[in-house]
């Protein structure tokens, strides 16, 4: 029993080990502990836990458990005091450069924010002005921390929160000569493939402002497409780099899971979390990936990633950019991914593949492709519920970096009852809690095991057919019109707009394979995108094929 108590707070313990009394030796508790963690946990709460988990606690033991649980307040008080003491070392950028960073919040749809692409604009000069990203301007998705700037994550829940540290990708961009000029809008808690859930208004497609830009990195895709910045960093859990890139007609690269550190970005689900570049050209995407890729020492998703600035990795990307043809590349077209296409999307993609003049092009059968949305949901519903709602939007990361202030902001706003939630997030909250209530971690486990099987299936098809890459349409149709009035949508209508476009993007979110989206055509003025998929850590193959295709295709319509 003594192990439950912090020695700093123990005044006297009788010889038989029973707790007798505790005296506070550190001056007493902060007010929040008096309110939130009483000396004895209420009997009603102990009773509810007893009932929920069928613990069968005898009535005569309830008082003991009230006291034992209540005693943990001492440990929390110690941690709270230590955290405040060491906060400058934990979040050093909040004590230096961030203080000098000014920003503005341009009105959505105004001249400076024509498509609602920005949540904040700024100008953060590079740390190393002569770096490889010299002269390039960057937008950073609003679920990624830039110290001193808002990090709203597309939601009313996070309004007013100012990030206290730079995400790893932000630091690396500034050290490599990039200039950050704003935070790009994203969908509400990053949970929509459409661009209609972002707070306070939808993000519009620069090619047709009445249509979706794609989500959840909606502002990133729109900002690059309209020329507001050269390059944007997006996040991708179910397609959120590739979806806006496809519908906005730009290049987006969801690299191998773990290649780019996720440190400093709000998580959706660690199994799916990716950060990656969006730009108008393959070269800009590659130059950015060379800078932001590699281990940072904090993100356990990066277990198998190469070191930062790894010479071999960088040489492989540079070599891919030097290729002028694909005469030795073998391509597989995933049959299931071409089914039920609209707007002639399948024909545009097949034509693009034909233009490549690859050594071999075959149609391949991957039946599990049609089940990948179900597998994604099996993993995502329960764990995303725990990440977003139980943990304040930040996944528990073993030995990782943790944005405590963001978690506190999220949890406090969530409990206030004063914020509007998107229908997509309400659905996730209800379904996720129900799943955990009924099944615990059963379907998270089943989904995780099936994700491994799916990964093996794609790679088996590639091995049996001796393929270098797989190719298919990024989205099976062009961007549809935005809802006329998003506030008048029913929950069902909101969900239909949010998840109608993910059938071909969720598969490599689940498997983790690198996937590069590149525009191939326009249909009635709206872009059509093609995805190029390779095996893990073979980003060079995606780049090789995409770069050669870009040269063959030539420039597309520019805005």
Description of the structure:
This protein has 559 residues and is an alpha+beta fold. 36% of the residues lie in helices and 15% in strands. It contains 17 helices and 16 strands. The strands form 3 sheets. Strands 3-4-6-5-9-11-10-15-16-14-12-13 form a 12-stranded mixed β-sheet, sandwiched between helices. The protein has a two-stranded antiparallel ribbon with strand order 1-2. It has a two-stranded antiparallel sheet with strand order 7-8. A hairpin with a 5-residue loop joins strand 1 (10-13) and strand 2. The radius of gyration is 25 Å and the shape is globular. 49% of the residues are buried. The model is unreliable at 1-29 (pLDDT under 50).
What is the count of DSSP helices, taking H or I runs of 4+ residues? 17
Rg over C-alpha atoms, rounded to the nearest angstrom: 25 Å
**Structural class assignment:** alpha+beta
The strand order across the widest sheet is 3-4-6-5-9-11-10-15-16-14-12-13
Strand content: 5-15%
Rounded average pLDDT: 91
Low-confidence stretches: 1-29
Number of DSSP E strands: 16
Q: Ends: how far apart?
A: 69 Å
Net shape? globular
Main sheet makeup: 12 strands, mixed
The percent range for helix content is 25-40%
């Amino acid at each position: 029993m003594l192990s439950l108590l912090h020695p700093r707070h123990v005044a006297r313990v009788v010889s038989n080990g029973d707790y007798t009394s505790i005296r506070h030796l550190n001056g007493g508790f902060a007010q929040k502990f008096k309110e939130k963690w009483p000396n004895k946990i209420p009997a009603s709460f102990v009773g509810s836990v007893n009932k929920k988990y069928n613990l069968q606690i005898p009535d005569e033991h309830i008082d003991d458990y009230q006291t034992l649980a209540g005693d943990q307040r001492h440990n929390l008080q110690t941690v709270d005091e230590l955290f405040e003491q060491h906060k400058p070392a934990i979040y050093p950028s909040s004590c230096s450069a961030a203080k000098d960073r000014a920003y503005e919040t341009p009105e959505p749809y105004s001249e400076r924010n024509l498509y609602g692409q920005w949540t904040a604009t700024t100008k953060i000069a590079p740390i190393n002005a002569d770096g490889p990203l010299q002269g390039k301007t960057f937008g950073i998705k609003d679920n990624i921390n830039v110290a001193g700037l808002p990090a709203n994550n597309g939601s009313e829940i996070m309004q007013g929160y100012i990030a206290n540290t730079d995400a790893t990708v932000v630091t690396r961009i500034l050290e490599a000569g990039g200039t950050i000029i704003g935070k790009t809008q994203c969908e509400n808690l990053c949970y929509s493939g459409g661009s209609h859930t972002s707070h306070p208004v939808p993000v519009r497609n620069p090619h047709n402002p009445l249509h979706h830009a794609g989500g959840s990195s909606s502002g990133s895709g729109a900002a690059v497409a309209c020329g507001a910045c050269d390059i944007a960093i997006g996040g991708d859990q179910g397609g959120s780099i590739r979806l806006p890139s496809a519908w906005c007609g730009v290049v987006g690269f969801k690299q191998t899971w773990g290649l780019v550190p996720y440190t400093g970005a709000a998580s959706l689900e660690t199994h799916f979390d990716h950060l990656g570049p969006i730009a108008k050209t393959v070269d800009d995407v590659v130059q950015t990936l060379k800078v932001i890729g590699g281990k940072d020492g904090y993100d356990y998703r990066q277990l198998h990633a190469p070191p930062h600035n790894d010479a071999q990795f960088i040489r492989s990307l540079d070599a891919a950019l030097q290729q002028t043809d694909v005469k030795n590349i073998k391509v597989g077209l995933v049959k299931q991914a071409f089914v039920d296409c609209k707007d002639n999307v399948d024909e545009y993609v097949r034509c693009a593949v034909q233009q490549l003049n690859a050594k071999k092009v075959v149609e391949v059968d991957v039946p599990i492709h049609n089940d990948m949305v179900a597998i994604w949901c099996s993993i995502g519903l329960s764990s995303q519920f725990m990440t977003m709602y139980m943990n304040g939007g930040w996944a528990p990361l073993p030995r990782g970096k943790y944005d405590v202030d963001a978690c506190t902001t999220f949890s406090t706003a969530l409990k206030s009852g004063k914020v509007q939630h998107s229908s997509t997030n309400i659905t996730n909250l209800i379904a996720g809690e129900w799943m955990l209530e009924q099944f615990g971690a059963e379907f998270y486990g089943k989904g995780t095991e099936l994700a491994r099987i799916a990964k093996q299936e794609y790679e088996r098809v590639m091995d049996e057919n001796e393929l270098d890459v797989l190719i298919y349409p990024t989205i099976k149709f062009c961007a549809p019109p935005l809802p006329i009035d998003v506030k008048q949508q029913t929950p069902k209508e909101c969900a239909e707009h949010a998840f109608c476009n993910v059938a071909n993007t969720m598969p490599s979110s689940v498997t983790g394979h690198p996937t590069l989206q590149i525009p191939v055509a326009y249909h009635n003025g709206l872009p059509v995108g093609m995805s190029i998929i390779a095996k893990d850590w073979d980003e060079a193959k995606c780049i090789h094929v995409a770069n050669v295709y870009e040269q063959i295709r030539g420039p597309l319509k520019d805005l």
